[in-house]
Amino acid sequence: VLTDVIPSLVKVIGEQPKVAHATGIEAQNRFRYIAQCFARAICTPRRPLICVLDDLQWCDTASIDLMKTFVTDESNNHLLFIGCYRDDEMGAEHHVSVKFDQMKKENNVKFTTIELGNMDLDSLTSFV
Q1: Which residues touch 95 (CB under 8 Å, ≥6 apart)?
Q2: Phi first, then psi: what are they for 87, rounded to 5°?
Q3: Full-model pTM
Q4: Within a 13 Å sphere around the CA of 101, how many CA atoms are in the beta-carbon half?
Q5: Are 52 and 85 in contact (CB under 8 A)?
Q6: φ, ψ for residue 3 (rounded to 5)?
Q7: Helices (H), 51-120
Q8: How far from the centroid of its chain's Cα atoms is residue 33's Cα?
């Protein structure tokens, strides 16, 4: 299932047996479950994984649901998600904001918000 989405993964885990074709909700649930198992296998205390996702304001619902699968997995304490978004493009009614609020309330997911403003010219010049 994962090698269908990430073909280069075959180099790491080898050829995988074909699985029965699934559609709709069954396919989504299967993919989330397999991705969750894979994350559990590769995220260890000695090798934690940090996943950075930028431009979450443009993220589709299926991707946010997959992220929810990872961040609500109490069996995986070695995975950190960092999400970046433009707050001026993502109000309280935005589907990503709604999902985040659900995760906070229903799954006790902890979010840390760091607001970054625009850099002034001197800071930008120093950075470059």
Answers
A1: 61, 64
A2: -65, -25
A3: 0.75
A4: 9
A5: no
A6: -70, -20
A7: 61-71, 95-107
A8: 14
pLDDT digits (tens, 9 = 90+) for 15-33: 888 888 888 888 888 889 9
DSSP 48: -
Q: What is the C-alpha separation between 79 and 85, in angstroms, rounded?
A: 20
Helix (H/G/I), strand (E/B), else coil: 83: strand
Q: Which of 66, 84, 53 is nearest to 27 (CA)?
A: 66
Is there a contact between 6 and 35 (Cβ–Cβ < 8 Å)?
Answer: no
Instruction: Give the C-alpha distances (Å, rounded to integers) separating 12 from 6, 41, 48, 79.
Output: 11, 13, 18, 20
Mean pLDDT across the stretch 62-88?
Answer: 90
The answer to whether 79 and 43 have CB atoms below 8 angstroms apart is: yes
Question: What separation in angstroms does the CA of 63 have from each of 33, 55, 58, 117?
Answer: 14, 12, 10, 27
